[in-house]
Amino acid sequence: MCGPIAFVLPIPKGDKFKSILGTALYHAGRILSYSLIGLLFGLLGRGLYLAGFQQRLSILIGVVMILIILIPTRILNKFHFTRPLYLVIGKVKTKLGLYLNKSSFKSLFLIGFFNGFLPCGLVYMALLGAISTGELLDGAIYMTVFGLGTVPLMTAAVFLGNFLKVSVRNKIQKAIPIFVLIIGLLFILRGLGLGIPYVSPTDNQLLISNNPNSCVTE
């Protein structure tokens, strides 16, 4: 969803400084919207974390990621998971269409902002990760880092999109599911609590203690 929009951004082509600034504002808008969404999903994860579902949640998210990749899209579409969001998405697309016809720095920022709310497979995967953080602020930071990670490729799409060969675009599309599968496996590994530092912490390391004395090292 982001690629086609990046190809038609109303970036000032004649002025290098304005082109860079306009692209930066577009990215800033996207990252802001990702961060706001991350806050909400981090809050959701916080509730599940407090309920003691942190380990199970991590495994579940990993399994969901892998299933989304392995199950054919035509089968997933039968369940209409995003139907409740269609009305909101329609309004977002209307706003995007309005600002895509305007050439200004404000428009570029708002295009990026609304772009961040459009459905995208990788964003869905990132949101699952934001839930697993179990913290409101961590969820926002997770999505901010995700947004920053997309900057190089999206910048290339803005400036080189029309020059990239179809074969190159296809290779990028094929690499995305592999990336998601790897992330899904890492989430499952994390949830198994194998005691591997930073990768698969034990259950006790993820428990929230209400006793302040438990945080003091004797």
Short description:
By secondary structure, this protein is mainly α. The chain is 72% helix and 0% strand.
Report the sheet with the most strands, covering strand number, pairing sense and barrel closure: none
C-alpha end-to-end distance: 53 Å
Q: Please report the number of helical segments.
A: 10
Rg, alpha carbons: 20 Å
Classify the helix fraction into a percent range: over 70%
Q: How is this structure best described in words?
A:
By secondary structure, this protein is mainly α. It has one domain (10-215). The protein contains 10 helices and no strands. The longest helix is centred in the first third of the chain and has 35 residues, at 16-50.
Q: Could you outline the blueprint of secondary structure elements for this entry?
A:
Blueprint: H1 2-7, H2 16-50, H3 54-70, H4 73-76, H5 86-100, H6 105-115, H7 121-133, H8 136-160, H9 166-191, H10 203-206
Helix pairs in contact: 2-6, 2-7, 2-8, 3-7, 3-9, 5-6, 7-8
Features:
globular, single chain, 218 residues, mainly alpha, disordered C terminus, 10 helices
